[in-house]
Amino acid sequence: MIELLSPAGSMEALRAAVQNGANAVYLGCGTFNARQSAKNFTPQSLAEAVKYCHIRGVAVHLTLNTLVSDREVDACVELIRHAAECGVDAFIVQDLGVVQMCRRIAPSVPVHGSTQMTIHSLPGVMFCAAMGMTRVVLSRELSREEIAYICRNSPIEIEVFAHGALCMSYSGQCYLSSAIGGRSGNRGRCAQPCRQCYGYSRRENRYPLSLKDNCLVRYLQELDQMGVASLKLEGRMKRPEYVAAVTDVYRKALDTGAVSRPMMEALLTAFNRQGFTDGYYTGNLGKGMFGIREEKPEDPTWLRLARQSYEATENPLVDVKFHAVISQDSSSLTVTDPEGRSCTVEGPVPQLARTQLLTEEDLASRLSKTGGTPYRCVVATAQISPGLTMSAAAINAMRRDALNQLTALRARRESAMLLRLRKIPHFAGNKERPEFTVQVTSREQITQKLVKMNPAVLYVPLHILAEDLTFARQLARKVHVAVALPRIAHDGQLPAIRDALRALREVGIREALVGNLGLLLTVREAGMAIRGDFGLNIYNSLAMYSLREMELLSATLSFEMTLPQVRDISKAVPCELLAYGRLPLMVTENCLFKGKTGECACHMGPAKLVDKTGAEFPVIRDGNSCRSVLLNGKKLSWLDRQNDLAKLGLWAQRLYFTTENAKEVDHVLTACISHVPFDPGACTRGLYLRGLE
Ligand SMILES: [Zn+2]
């Protein structure tokens, strides 16, 4: 049976989820989770929450899905230990370092790859399986065919977002909130700037980054047949009434196989942004997927009913069997739960019956009165010696005793195996000045001056090299070229990418720059070595060490780090830092160019979005796909402060050219040599100085 997985941003929301039929809940505790503005749980209330759920047969998944800095490792370890002791059923993880921590400290607790890992292909799932994960939460941007393909071939469980808010960017690849206000989505602090208005010129009042909420309620049977293990409902920031209503509708849809009109209306009443979308699932991208929240007066009846579903009642969620034995000198009652756990309690010595004999029917009807408990009596059997009777009060007392004991038994946690986190060696890194690497986006940016500068590595997009192998061969003779792969590549694209890489290997290119875990295997199959890009979100020394174990040639550090963090992180492989360029703030499945004109014109060259303050965000493509990359308008620049980047142990600093033309490229290269002063109007230091909230 497919699992219904509901959000629990608070204890009240947790009750709402459980009482309305969730099979599992996911929740955060303390700071290491992607929804820090939710109420969340304390270490104390986490223990209570797990007990509450386990008694009722509901699993608890702990979200540990943020990037964790080296300084936070000890606190994160502490939380993992505590959660394992509380008996949580799984950890949901984004950071490669945190995956290692969970696997080493609490190897008996399953680890699920968060959607923040940006896993959207079968090789990505295979990678997670190889890392010891037992489930992956897929990116929300996949179609039904793509999900089905992954499910058919995956060795581990697949979880799919069924309902709730959609991010505009692939999750884990959004830096918009960070760049605008230092509130990182990868650190659980997203301020949702995608819900603000933007225009394609300054005064337009449009919402090109605000998607409607996802709703797959009509496809639950299909998802079940595909072999999807779990249906996730989004909403740890939403109120308990929302969780109650949405969980209830999905429970009913799963149990009855039908979706009625009142059920759809209940979902719409709970929350919507001008309706819902199933655009990714059905492959209908574009305008119809976008919408905003319209404020409407609250329906007090709806709120009251939603609250009633979990406040006043205890719904019978666990089926139990009773068996009573009543003989002349003793009485006992045994209760058994669906997992086969059983408890037996002794009752009083029965009385000899003067008038009314105790029958099996009497007994069964007394035992079935489990109201106010999480239990439902499905079978009650009895062996009663003749000529005996027992008071109703005595039978009720036995029933209560037995159920209390069962509750204690169900709440008892299995003792989790806890190990120490093994110390990993620290690598100091490069003592010399960092070299320059250069990444280009277009062919015209590969100027003569650039080639003459001879960067340590020149990253060139796959499609530019693959469409002209003669050019690729000639270029590779002059400079050290590595292929820059698109950050997003669905399964359907992978064979072509592999073939193109093989062809490029033949002309002398031996390395690829990879920003997604799903591409590692494809690059290896093509016989190329791997350089890690910023999309891997490397944020701590443990994650760095993982890359060393995977034999990466180098790694690009997250541009959400501060310079002291960059200095202190272990350089387990040579480290690179973005030092110049427009930082990519989003990568989106929907074509942002199409949002402007209704037709895709993204091959025509860059467009831009403008926010309320007049700040511009140029848009380019991810590789040569129709996926869009939203760039920061202000360029990151450390060209004038190369000394500050000199003592950090870095192997290289990267100049990243996006919308620049050939002349601008040459200008930047000149500036690079001559240390021109910083222009605060056009440039930013990024987060390296100010850091994240
Ligand atoms: Zn397009």
Question: Could you characterize the architecture of this molecule?
Answer:
The chain is of the alpha/beta class and 693 residues long. The strands form five sheets. Strands 1-2-3-4-5-6-7-10 form an eight-stranded parallel barrel, surrounded by six helices. An eight-stranded parallel beta barrel has the order 18-19-20-21-22-23-24-30. It has a five-stranded antiparallel beta sheet with strand order 8-26-27-28-25. Helix 1 runs parallel beside helix 9. The protein is elongated, with a radius of gyration of 29 Å. The two termini are 41 Å apart. It binds zinc ion. Residues 591, 593-594, 600, 602, 626 line the site of zinc ion.
